[in-house]
Design a protein that fits this description.
234 residues; alpha/beta; TIM Barrel; 9 helices; 18% strand; binds pyridoxal-5'-phosphate; pyridoxal phosphate; PLP-binding_barrel
Length: 234
């Protein structure tokens, strides 16, 4: 586990990388930073929030519940970035303002029904599998527009963009074509001008490859280990 000082220094370094990749200088493009906080205890996350982090992403509903007593008191927004089972929908909605991993109509349906009961709305991103790896969740790029149309029929869900998890590779350039594919998919959905669908968020890029993702158009990067250090292996 890293010290407070290490986390603050890492966060500053990640911000510098983001700014450099976004053009550098004062007129650089704005890119949001989401901290991926899986396995990290709430007190480590609190250090990053104290240092100015404003959005965190969790992968498991159980961790959202465990850390809620601390995180709900801090000025940060929580997103869900993991695979969401439909039987966890009621629980996840207690904690998050955005689900980045909507990858099927059945899930959209369950979210819609619960949101009607709660009388609220939710931002969602559609998860796209750009690498074609069977181990990854998300719809293939050629099904993204159809999913956007289906999800947009659920009026409590506000489609805000796309999310992808890039190819795992020791060669960072191997991820680039996938990120280009996500951007092209975003452009295609945008030009289809579907009612209720906005495409202002392109969530792609992690610790190892955020620079490439930003160069390819990411508006949000999701960073874990570059800030919090390596995680225990599952
Ligand atoms: C863990 C995780 C990240 C961050 O990964 P790092 O390599 O630690 O930066 C980003 N997105 C998702 C969906 C994750 O699960």
């Amino acid at each position: 586990m890293l010290t407070d000082e290490q986390i603050r220094a890492n966060l500053a370094a990640v911000r510098a990388r983001i700014q450099a990749a976004a053009g550098g200088g004062t007129d650089s493009r704005h890119v949001d930073l989401l901290l991926a906080t899986k396995t990290m205890p709430a007190d480590r996350i609190a250090v990053a929030i104290d240092a100015g982090a404003r959005v965190i992403g969790e992968n498991r509903v159980q961790e959202l519940a465990e850390k809620d007593a601390v995180l709900s008191t801090l000025p940060c927004e929580r997103h869900f970035i993991g695979h969401l089972q439909t039987n966890k929908v009621n629980q996840v909605l207690r904690y998050v303002t955005c689900v980045q991993s909507v990858d099927r109509v059945e899930l959209a349906d369950r979210l819609q029904r619960r949101l009607e009961t709660l009388d609220r709305t939710l931002d969602v991103l559609l998860q796209i599998n750009v690498s074609g790896e069977p181990s990854k969740f998300g719809v293939p790029p050629d099904q993204a527009l159809a999913l956007a149309r289906d999800v947009a029929k659920r009026d409590r869900l506000r489609v805000r963009g796309l999310m992808t998890i890039g190819r795992m590779s020791s060669d960072p350039d191997a991820v680039r074509p996938g990120y280009q594919r996500l951007r092209a998919t975003r452009d295609k959905i945008e030009s289809a001008a579907v009612d209720g669908v906005r495409m202002d968020t392109l969530s792609m890029g992690m610790s190892a490859d955020l620079d490439i993702a930003i160069a390819e158009g990411a508006t949000m990067v999701r960073v874990g280990s570059a800030v919090f250090g390596s995680r225990p292996r599952p």
